[in-house]
Amino acid sequence: MRRGLERVTPGHRLEGGQVLLARAIAHPTADEFLAGLTGATLSDWHRRGKYLLGQLTQPDDSPGGYLGVHLRMTGQLLWLDPKTPVQTHCRVRLWLSDNHELRYVDQRTFGRLWWVPPGVAPEVIMTGLKALGPEPFDEAFSVAYLRQRLGRSRRPIKNALLDQRLVAGIGNIYADEALFISGVRPLTLCDRLGPKRLQRLHSAIREVLTTSIESGGTTFSDYRDIYGVNGNYGGVAWVYDREGLPCKVCATAITRLKLAGRSAHYCSQCQR
Ligand SMILES: [Zn+2]
User: Fold this and answer.
1) CA distance 22 to 8
2) What's the 125 CA to ligand 1 centre distance in angstroms?
3) pLDDT > 70: percent of the chain
4) Ligand 1 centre from 185 Cα, in Å?
5) Where are the domains of the chain?
6) Phi, psi of 57 (to 5 degrees)
């Protein structure tokens, strides 16, 4: 998603917009959000965990703060012609120079947008940034770190992987896939994982994320890339959304269960 945004938005000036659902704007108010963005130009995009940060520059080249986005379950950012008919679930429209629009569409309305004013650190406004654990590709996210954080924990490993304080950016799909690759059941308690299984889980997390990024991002049914087209990671999933279908390794039917309010998918033969 970040790469998609950085491919198309830099250099475009925000000329105005429309907030169709006020609570889609987490900060400041809807009017202040549009006023803060208008006139600024988008440049680089950064990502931390599941948060996206679009860097803004004011007309006099001074910093213009950031446009912050968290898509949550069903949020989508679309890059399109402003004349494109407005979708039922369209929540925010941002009109950019040269006849472009960055449109935020969200069916379940859990996603949020922020305007971070210049001179203010993003985590002061987007407070969720403060609690994030290390990025999966950071050196700080090591096997030793996992051992230290999980060694005495009695919660299921799937819940730990979804906890953004342990590691940032792993969602439901990635967690299920990484657990399959490492041969660990979602319900396995963290303190039951020995060094070998932690090592396998650590590599599996990086493997799943690498595969997904290379194939165009988190693009299962609820996520779209920047042009609103589904990516192709869904086609290569081992277990996610495959309940009842044969395991691609051993042909056992994939099991689905509810865990921490989310579905977990696993193979009872390949995962222990
Ligand atoms: Zn299997």
Assistant:
1) 26
2) 45
3) 93
4) 11
5) 2-130, 143-266
6) -125, 135
For 93: left if phi > 0, alpha if psi spans -120 to 50, otherwise beta; the answer is beta
According to the model, what pLDDT value does residue 216 have? 67
Using CA atoms of 140, 143, 147, 149 in order, give the dihedral in degrees to the nearest 10.
Answer: 30
DSSP state of 33: H
Residues facing residue 63 across a β-bridge = 57
Q: CA 165, CA 175: separation in Å to the nearest integer?
A: 15
CATH of range 143-266; options 2.40.290.10, 1.25.40.10, 1.10.287.70, 1.10.8.50 = 1.10.8.50
Residue 163 Cα to ligand 1 midpoint, Å, equals: 26
Strands (E), the chain: 14-19, 25-27, 41-48, 51-57, 63-70, 75-80, 90-96, 100-106, 112-116, 255-259, 262-266
Residue 252 DSSP symbol:
P
CA 240 / ligand 1 centre spacing (Å):
13
What's the pTM? 0.90
Q: According to the model, what pLDDT value does residue 215 have?
A: 74
Give the model's pLDDT for residue 40: 98
What is the whole-number distance in angstroms between the Cα of residue 253 and the centre of ligand 1? Answer: 8
Dist. CA 248 → ligand 1 center (Å): 7
Q: CB within 5 A of ion ligand 1: which residues?
A: 247, 249-250, 252, 267, 269-270
Whether domain 2-130 has CATH 3.20.190.10: the reply is: yes
